[in-house]
Amino acid sequence: MKENRNITLDEIKAPLATEMANYEHFLREALHSESRYFDDILKYIFDNRGKGVRPTLVMLFGRLHSSEAKYNKRLMLSAALIELIHTASLVHDDVIDKADIRHGKSSVNQRFGKRNAILTGDFILSRIFELGMESLEFDLLTYVSHSIKWLCEGEVIQDEQTKTLGMTHEKYYDIIDKKTASLLAISCGVGALAVKATAREVDAAYEFGRNIGMAFQIKDDILDYAAADQTGKPRCADLREHKITLPLLETLKELDEPRQLEVKEWVRKADDESITLICKLIEQHDGIAKAEAIMEEFISAAKRSLEAYPDSPYRTSLYQMCDFLALRKR
Question: Measured between alpha carbons, how far is 136 from 328 in angstroms, rounded to an integer?
């Protein structure tokens, strides 16, 4: 992939200034508690959110299919539901992983305790269904709720593969499809659904999101091998948790069975010496470059699907989103 000028998320969001402001107001109104302490926890979470990629995708596909989506309440609701699903999953993930840091700040479990973190994640999930039911927009609630099931399935399948070290390409793609790509796909699809796009258009939006979601996770797995001073995260954190991802899978397929078993034993040990040996082996067999080539295939598929849409600032932003996800350094 030819490296272009770095695109910022602010540039991508530029055509959505009004929509994102309306969405932020909607989200703040939707998520609160009468308990001051609990409200402080919720405020802490949403003051320290990530980049907002998923609600941005909701808005972009809404505007791509409708010129009157700027104040569309269905679109605001859809973006909020997606953000709440993503946020609840991160709160619960940090408890499971015993993570102390999220987006450079103390995680919810670190700051407020594990018990309060679990209950806060549950509260956010319950608010998803409450908002959906109160709005009577049952098609939107049904559509986005599929992603909760897939997220959970993906985590459990990955845990099983981590214990057995039985990861294959097929299993890897299934896991990242469920864990990561599904919510990005749902984000795009529900944006189209919210403005009454046709079923075919909703499916096309979903496929765009799935392709960039697969690329997004592969990029994450590639960055896991990058230096900590680049990503801000410990190098090879996945390996230390005995996770086999695409750069190593691409390397393993070049080895005979006895050598594969030896490498998997290094993964099982996951000490500094073993991880160093794995990194050298991946470098020898171009595992990173091969994983990048596969990521680029997903990005290219996403870009090709945008050719069916007329030129607009929203289509341009979606092209930029592809580059933003593929070229990020952390």
Answer: 39
Residues linked to residue 106 through DSSP beta bridges, in sequence order: 101
Specify the range with the lowest mean pLDDT, choosing from 124-133, 134-143, 225-234. 225-234
Cβ(231)–Cβ(205) below 8 Å: no
Residue pLDDT, tens place only, 48-72: 888 899 999 999 999 999 877 556 8
Look at the chain and count its residues: 330
* Closest among 131, 127, 119 to 95, alpha carbons compared: 119
pTM confidence score: 0.92
Q: Domains of the chain by range and CATH?
A: 9-327 (1.10.600.10)
In angstroms, the first-to-last Cα distance of the chain is 17
Question: Helices 182-194 and 73-97 meet at what angle, rounded to 10?
Answer: 170
Q: What is the 3-state secondary structure (H, E, C) of 228-264?
A: HHHHCCCCCHHHHCCCCCHHHHHHHCCCCHHHHHHHH
Which pLDDT value is given to residue 2? 44
How far apart CA 56 and CA 11 sit, in angstroms, is 12
Mean local confidence (pLDDT), 1-22: 81
Choose among 149, 214, 131, 145: nearest CA to 186.
Answer: 145
Residues 6+ apart with CB under 8 A from 162: 241, 242, 243, 244
Pair 63, 310: CB distance under 8 Å: no
- The CA distances from residue 265 to 172, 211, 213, 262, 287, in Å, are 19, 33, 30, 5, 18
Name which residue leads in pLDDT, 64 or 227. Answer: 64
Answer whether residue 3 shows pLDDT above 60: no
CA-nearest of 298, 318, 286 to 181 is 298
Q: What is the pLDDT of residue 62?
A: 95
Chain-centre distance for alpha carbon 202: 19
Q: Tell the burial category of 227 from Cβ atoms under 10 Å away from its Cβ (0-12, 13-18, 19+).
A: exposed
For residue 194, what are its two tokens?
């919210």
Contact 103, 232 (CB under 8 A): no
